[in-house]
# Entry
Amino acid sequence: MPSEKQSNSRVNQILRSALDASLIPFLAIVTAVVLGGIIILSVGGNPLLAYSGMLEGSLGSKKALSETAVWASPYIFAGLAVALAFKGGLFNIGAEGQLAVGAVFSALIGYALPGWLGFEIPAFIHVTLAILIGMITGGIWAGIVGALKAYTGGHEVINTIMMNYIALNTTSFLLNGVMKDHSPTNASARTPLIAEGARLPVMFEGLRIHWGFVLALLVAFLIWWILNKTTLGFEIRTVGLNPDAAKYAGINVKRTIIITMMLSGMLAGLAGAIEVTGLNYRHELGFSIGYGYDAIAIALLGKSHPLGIVLASLLFAIMRNGATRMQFLTQLPVDLISMLQALILLFVAADAIVRYIYRIKAKGERVVLTRGWGG
Amino acid sequence: MSKNKIVLEVKGLTKQFPGVLANDNINFDLHKAEIHALLGENGAGKSTLMNLIYGLHNADKGEILVNGKTAAIESPKDSIALGIGMVHQHFMLIPVFTVAENVMLGDETVKNGSLDRTAVAARINEISKQYSLDVDPNAIVGSLPVGIQQRVEIVKTLYRNAEIVILDEPTAVLTPQEADDLFRIMRDLTARGVSIIFITHKLKEVLAVADRITVMRAGRVVDTVVPAKTDSAQLANMMVGRQVILTVPKKDRKANGEILKVENVSVRDQRDLETVHNVSFSVFGGEVFGIAGVQGNGQTELSEALTGLRTPTGGKVTIAGKDLTGKSPRIITESGLAHIPEDRQRHGLVLNYSVVDNMALCDYYHAPFSQRGVLQPDALDKNARKLIKEYDVRTPSPFVSAGNLSGGNQQKVIIARELSRDVKLVIANQPTRGLDVGSIEYIHTEIIKMRDRGVAVLLISAELDEIMALSDRIAVMYRGQIVAIVETKKTTREQLGLWMAGVHAERK
# Structure
């Protein structure tokens, strides 16, 4: 007999599930922070000073806040990319490569298009074009993997990793070759600066925070809306949860896999395009190292929910941005931040540990990451 | 026989799960060398009681006595030591291991640091001979038929010197013939002093094989009776707690036009073996056409080919005059098919979805559930609430995920979704598998309702009783072919059984 005490209203149900979903990540963070504190103590540091330094460095001033937002933007886009794929039952490890592809093409449009056309493009159109092309190329890059999965059964984990190698090495080749900034002062592998018209405007004079951050928040909402309120989202989620039932229900599973992968790649490509048009104004080798991989961590910590992704991205941004100040105050190595991130993830991934520490009973559903090889 | 000594006694056993009192003050005893059937619907508390006895759960209150002595059973280790063995519904065997390796698993006999397969094999041969189990210790388990695999499980318990054997729904996976073999083995076991607890929800089996019958309902023992003094109807009433119609009454068939036409259809399975060869038949509006057959004779692949889940390799499928061979499930559904799939959890439902979403699983994409690609929550809610009421789905709320419902209610969600559409053809594959008497009665009534409304119904079932009770005409499938098509009135259970077993002598 199901208990009658269960709530009947939709709102209660949603609140309850939100609370359930955020409990483990929250406790994982708490546990990691405590454990991190113990480690700081053991190497002779002062954990309170370290943590307050981290918060001060990331939230303590206008400039600190602005930098945190700058860090958070690519995290949000790339985190959404991985999360969307998770929802569709796909494990996109290729955000790093898709991001690089998006950044390269966005930069190319940004610096080379006026020359090809022979005239200056109006600013609004130029920046939109640069971002769109970055997004679309990232989508195509991931879509190839989706098509391989749908038509040959090739596993997306393997194929996204391989596509990463191709993307990153090709990028390196291009940035050292045809796309290299040939101005005499430049020695590094990077493109020329993009045209003024291809740059996202800054939000406040003197701060680096750009409109890409606002766009990231809007896109997070858009993804939530698509997943939960549209028929496309219903199809993506159904294929993710139960592909057999999806087929039975008349959903074109192959098509949905390809669409999911393309959307995921578009989000990753967007992360790259925004870094180019909003922050660096060029693509430089090595700027993104790790965004695409941190994105997997963020998607896990955020439980693949867009709001969770935004919060997890902010947390990662706070840790990354606050690290310098922490180091300055305590002389602790920045590597400690990486360790803290790893600890948080460890506790989120191995949630049994957290459940054991806090005596929480497991409840039905688990996050389905992949369904095994060739699944 | 009932004057025998009591080998197992349970006194006042109580087990509370969150929200459910699974076992409420249970008293139960088992005599030496008897078959004591434990009968009850799904969720009546049978499995909980057995798990308490076997040590998989620990009781909140009450005690268990083995051979008159209070037994502290905290884990299966303790119960095995006390001579209790259990054969689970889902076998606990490793398919790539041999019988001997499976039997010694967890209790390995070692000689000079390696497994002593010869000694174990000898012991298995001995047990096998003693109880006429006919199990080859060197066979690979995965290559054995299900009936033999079950015997391996029985050997496993006897190898550990079990004197009390618990069989949990042992016939659920067996053909009628295999079930008869099992009953013979059960009698052989009791003749040699083994006591058996036989868990089931099938009334006929209980009456055929049990010495005593204990009926459970909603966590309590209703009564313990002997087969001679009871019958199916009384047992069903005890199980469900109300009058149950075991055979749904139906009017004479009024068949009209041909709805489903299957011509020379062949299908290959995922291993690329042709499991359906050249099958032809027609189903008319207003009739139930039953396909009988032992499981694994091509029924699954045939129904997948008819519903679009699998592409036939040859032949033609026509529904209501439209050629739908190899078309997608959506096109076939839109042509008027309601499909109650064989595996309700794999195909029929998304268990993580709410009842609301599951109720619209096949219709989410068109009006009123969706407009210009955007879902309409109000229409979805309204639809779900209406169907929950109409089809009597027992759920605390429409927003509960389908995975939290009982098997019967999960099937009701599928039935409601499929039969509420405007359909011309219903394909129901094993629609009552694993369900309790009350749900079976309900689903049979709904199927007959569709038939009386003029819909064509194709019923595929391995339960011969179900086929005989519902069908107007019956086809028997054997090794991928239809070996006979007869009118239900003009055949017998025995005749169908022979066809199912591949005896073609009287093929018409």
